[in-house]
User: What shape does this take?
Amino acid sequence: MNILSLFKQSNSKIPQTLILGEDAFLNDYLARKFVAQEQFKDFEHIALDCSEDGLDELMANLTESSLFDNQKIIIAKNPFFLTAKVAAKYKKDIEKLQVIIEHLNEIENIVVFVANYENIDRRKKISKALMKQVNVVETKLKPYEISGFLKALIKQEGYTITNQALQMLIQRSDQVLDTALVNYLKLKNICDDDHKITESLIDRTIDRSLSENIFEILSAAFKGDYVQASKRLDDHLREGNNVVQLLAVFQNQLEFLMVVKVLQNRRWSQDQIVRELKANPYRIKFAMQNPVKLAKLKDLIKHSIELDFGYKNGTYHGNEFLKMFLLSI
Assistant: This one.
């Protein structure tokens, strides 16, 4: 199965492709997987950067036959000519390139444009021409879609992962797709022959993120396990995390929890909250299960802001006041 099928496509029957989205690591991964398909094994593989190699290089590769009498498949990164602001010196080259693109379906070579941009200028003539000639694959994912994408990708590549292990992978990746993808590739490299990605493997391989560790500290404090909360905090301080950084993550976690509780009190369902906050479903689930009251969260957030201000103006020194904060939870 074509890996691009994990995303919405404009016309999957067209081999000429535009991968569009601001996540460069994801786009590069998709492009490399796409051109590595069995159907392209006898093609001459070429990679170029439009910004660095110039448009002459792109035009030559599109229109000239391969030296090896094979078809070419070209990964063309950074097609800047599709963006709104392009230097005037490229005007003539873009006009020539537009003519080629208008007849892209007549060219034997295949090109995969990798546009690591949030948007392109769809009003430009060359953009309109390209969109008609290629399969447009937009790779932007909302936070709550990351889990589903990773699960589908892992399955497509012949690996298995339980929902609990997937949840752990996302948590340890701090709900960031790039990080989760990098961590998944690490796990693939050390996975057993059975291709099972387990919680045990993730626990041994991937360190907890700062956000996840702060979440664990707060969870322990909310349960009244102040010994465990204090121990985890000490571990972070020994690792060199500064007080301001830790306070910022504490505030972020508490504010997120408060927003979830507000919506929960309005009788919103988990799915409604996920869509509204565009957050990972697992994170929402844990927040909803936390029994802390809304009034308590408001007091804690106010307290954390006061501590942050006090530390920055010199009222507080060291880090003992952070432990006192945990004891107040």
